[in-house]
Amino acid sequence: MIVMKFGGTSVEDSDSIRRVIEIVKSEIPRKPLVFVSACAGVTNRLLRIASLSAEGKKDEANDLITDIKARHEKLVEELIPSDLPKNYLRGKISVYAHELKNLSQAISVIGEVTGRSLDTIASYGERLSSMIIAQAMEEDSVKSMFVDAREFMITDDHYTKAVPLFPVVEERAKKLLLPLALNGYVVVTQGFIGSNGKGITTTIGRGGSDYSASIIGSLLEAEEIQIWTDVDGVLTADPSIVGAARRIRKMTFNEASELAYFGARVLHPKTILPAVDKNIPVYVRNSRNPSYRGTLITKGDGNEEGIAKSIAYKERITLLNLESSRMFLAPDFLEAVFAVFSKYHVIAHAVATSEVSVTVAIDDTSHLEDLKSDISEFAEISSSGGKAIVCVVGENIRYNPGVVGRIFSALKDIRINMISQGASEINIGFVVDENDIEAAVRLLHAELFANPSSQGSPDQLFD
Ligand code: ADP
Ligand code: ASP
Ligand code: MG
Fold first, then answer.
1. pLDDT digit of tens for each residue in the chain (463 aa)?
2. How far apart are CA 343 and CA 208, in angstroms?
3. Which ligand 2 atom is at minimum distance from the Cα of 212?
4. Does domain 2-230 have CATH number 3.40.1160.10?
5. Which ligand is nearest to the CA of 44?
6. How far is the CA of 102 from the centre of ligand 1 (A)?
7. Computed over its alpha carbons, how large is the radius of gyration of the chain?
8. Per CATH, domain 310-454 is 3.50.50.60
9. Which of 176, 178, 210 is closest to 192 using CA atoms?
10. Nearest ligand to the C-alpha of residue 192?
11. What residues contact 199, with CB distance under 8 A and at least 6 apart?
C-alpha cells in the first residue's frame, strides 16, 4: 500500500484533476490511498469569508461564497459526464454554499470568529474537492471509495492547530481505510481536516495535508509516501527567489525536516516525523511532470554525498536581547529565561549567548508584552521585529568547517544580527533584516549551488 497526497495546485482545475487521476491509475497495483487538498486558493478564500463576516462585510463574504460555488460547479460540469452523480454533486455544492452562508451570517451577528468556526469554514475546501475527485475517478472506471477524514483523523480540541490522537487515529484508519485499500479500492480522502471525536470539525494547521498523509502512511506502514506538488521536488532554494534553483535528488529525513521547519513551504514542518518512526521513504514529485522521479527522502546510509543541500528562510522573526549584570552567568539564569518562554508556549527558533547577553529568535509575538514584563524582573530585555532566519541545511556541514567561511564571505555585505548552529549541526542559521532575505538567499545560492562540485557536492546530486 502507498499513500499519495495531492496539493492545492495539483487539483486546481479539471485538467489538473485529470492528470491526478492518470497518476493514481498508474499506481493502482500498489494499492494507493489518496489524500487531496482544497483547490488552490480556496482555503485562503474560506478564511477570508470568516474574517469579512466578523467585520460585518456580509456582501463581500457572500460574493466569495458564490465564487467558490461556481468554481466547483464548473469542475463538476467538466469532469462528471453522467447525469445522476452530476446532479447529486450539484445538490451537495448548493447545500455546502447554503451552510457557508448560514455560518457567515452567524459570525456577522456575533461580530467575532472563534477557532472552532474557522475550522468548520476551512473544512469546506477539502470536502468539496475530495467529493468531486472521488466521483471523477469513478467516472474514469477507477474502483474508488470516498472516506471523510473526520471519521478517522481524530484530534484534540486545539482548533486551527489540532493535534491528532494517534492511538485512536490508528485504530480507525486500520478499521476504515486498510480493508478498502487491501480489497482493491482506491480510497480518496481529505488532508488537513479532522474531528475531535464529538463530531466537531478541526484542522491540523495550514499546509497540513502533507502531515495527514504522512501520519496515515506511518500508522498503516505504507511502502512509500508520495507528496505531489507543482515543482520537480525539493529544490536548492525557494524558486520564487532563485529562478535557477535545482532539484535535489536525494536527501535525509533530518535534512528535509530542518528545511521544512525553517520555512521551505514545499513540506509541512511535521511531515517527516511520522515517516522517520517507521522508516518510510517520502517522495516529493511534480504532478505536472510525473515522469520525473522527484526528490527521495530517506533515513540515509550515513554516507551522504554533498555538503550543503538547500537554503530556507523563515520570515516574521523577532529578536529578543537579554542582558543581566546581576544574575548573568549564574547557573540558573538560562533556566529562568526558558521557564518564562515555556509559561507562554513561545518557541525559541534560535539562541545565541555571549558573556553579557542572550539573544533569542521567536516568531510568535502574541504574548510578547507578558514575556517581556516577566523577564524584566530579572534582566534587561529589548526586542526588535522585522527579522528573518536564513538557514543552510546539509548533513555534511558539520564535517566541513570551510563551508561556514564561504557562507559568511558570500554574505559580507549583509547585516547579520545573529548566528546559530543547531545541535544537530546539520544547519547554519543566521538572522538578517527581512528586507535582506532575497539578497542573502541569492548570494548563498550563487556561492553554494551555481557550481555544486565547488562545495564537494557531486553534480549528480542536483539537476
Ligand atoms: P501544495 O499545494 O502542493 O501543498 P505548496 O504551495 O504548499 O504546494 O508547496 C509548493 C511550493 O513550495 C512550490 O511551488 C515552491 O514555490 C515553494 N517552495 C519554497 N521553498 C521550496 C524548496 N526549497 N523546494 C521546493 N519548493 C519550494
Ligand atoms: N488546504 C489547506 C491549506 O491551504 C491544507 C493544505 O493545502 O495542505 O492550508
Ligand atoms: Mg503544501
1. 999 999 999 999 999 999 999 999 999 999 999 999 999 999 999 999 999 999 999 999 999 999 999 999 999 999 999 999 999 999 999 999 999 999 999 999 999 999 999 999 999 999 999 999 999 999 999 999 999 999 999 999 999 999 999 999 999 999 999 999 999 999 999 999 999 989 999 999 999 999 999 999 999 999 999 999 999 999 999 999 999 999 999 999 999 999 999 988 999 999 999 999 899 999 999 999 999 989 999 998 877 778 899 999 999 999 999 987 665 566 778 888 899 999 998 999 888 887 778 899 999 899 999 999 999 988 899 999 999 999 999 998 888 878 888 999 999 999 999 988 766 689 999 999 999 999 999 999 999 998 766 666 666 677 7
2. 26
3. 8
4. yes
5. 2
6. 34
7. 24
8. no
9. 210
10. 2
11. none
**b/e burial code for range 210-232 (CB count within 10 A of at least 16 → b):** bbbbbbbbbbbebebbbbbbbbb
Parts of the chain belonging to CATH 3.30.2130.10: 310-454
Counting atoms of ligand 2 from 1, which one is nearest the CA of 209?
8
Cα–Cα nearest to 305, from 424, 458, 172: 458
Cell, residue 56: 460585518
- Ligand 1 lining (C-beta closer than 6 Å): 7-10, 37, 207, 229-231, 234-235, 237-240, 264-266, 310
- CA distances 124 to 250, 407, 448, Å, are 36, 45, 43
pTM for the model: 0.94
The rounded distance, in Å, linking the Cα atoms of 146 and 131 is 7
Q: What distance lies between CA 118 and its chain's CA centroid?
A: 18
d(C-alpha 213, C-alpha 195), whole Å: 16
Give the type of residue at 277: D
Q: 320 vs 325, 349, 352, CA distance in Å?
A: 17, 11, 11
Give span(s): CATH 3.40.1160.10, the chain: 2-230
